[in-house]
Amino acid sequence: MNFLRFAARRLAEMAATLLGASFVIFGAMYLAPGNPASFLLSGRSASPDALKAINDQYHLDDPFAVQYLRWLGRVLQGDFGRSITYRTDVSRLLADRLPSTLLLVAMALVLVVVVGLLLGRLGAVRGGAADATILVTTTFAVGTPSFVAAVLLQGLFAVKLGWFPTSGTGDGLGDMLWHLTLPAVALALYLIGMLARVTRAAMLEILTQEHVTVARSRGMTERQVISRHVFRNALGTVLTTGGLIVSTLLICTVLVESAFSVGGIGQLLELSTTTKDFPTVQAISLIMVGLFMTVNLVVDLLHPLVDPRVTLGSRRSAV
């Protein structure tokens, strides 16, 4: 029952936050410099009647409150409006492009979790030269922005060696995975270094605690101590970075998709921002906020299962 009450409360908070975020997103677009009508006219002069027709079609002259409430009502029905740039429904644009972005983010997330946890655990347990090598490697990874990693990987493995495609998403699942391999690595590199360092620091702290010494004195093997008492307890701290990891992936995918010409919502967001395509920018921004909040909700619900010392509604601070 406590779990259900906590989940219901977090869902209510999520809905309220999304409502506030929708107001901020719509307001930011409303106050942004420039006018969508100027893009529709492609720089050509227009008669007052033609300009009025455009403003009436897209309701650009309505008061802010009227525009916001009309937009919010459509969004609640799954209608994000009509793209000014592409002259089609925003929902259709998102349906065509969202799968590529979700697959790219999922591939990058798998790389971050598997490689980051493995390197962090290896560095904490092995120590010595292995730990030093991992520290140097993760320092390099953390210091490499995603767009720099994208350029380097594309130049070496796609252009020079020809092992991977230089751009696009391919056709079919297998081809898509092949096309998105380099973008996923570029997207994950920074976060792999960050997660490895967080995991290493958390495990080193737990290794010095009394219950680890007691477990060793009872005759448990070192592997059992690491798995049951060190690594598992460290996962609680690592889990608190889940929201940060996903938010970083969503933000950096804009740069990576542009570098590799991946037809996802990241590249669509960049193009829509440039052309003042307000409905598309608003829809993508709201979706990204919703995804980020969903991940935070999942992290909150999983945290007590990973670390029994944490109760619902509380979190340990990350190392």
From TrEMBL:
CDD domains: TM_PBP2
Regions crossing the membrane: 12-32, 101-120, 132-157, 177-196, 234-260, 280-299
Tagged with keyword Transmembrane: yes
Cell compartments where the protein resides: Cell membrane
Record has Membrane as a keyword: yes
Start and end residues of each ABC transmembrane type-1 domain: 98-299
Its membrane topology: Multi-pass membrane protein
Highest taxon in the source lineage: Bacteria
Similarity section: Belongs to the binding-protein-dependent transport system permease family.
This protein's name: ABC transporter permease
Species for this entry: Kitasatospora paranensis
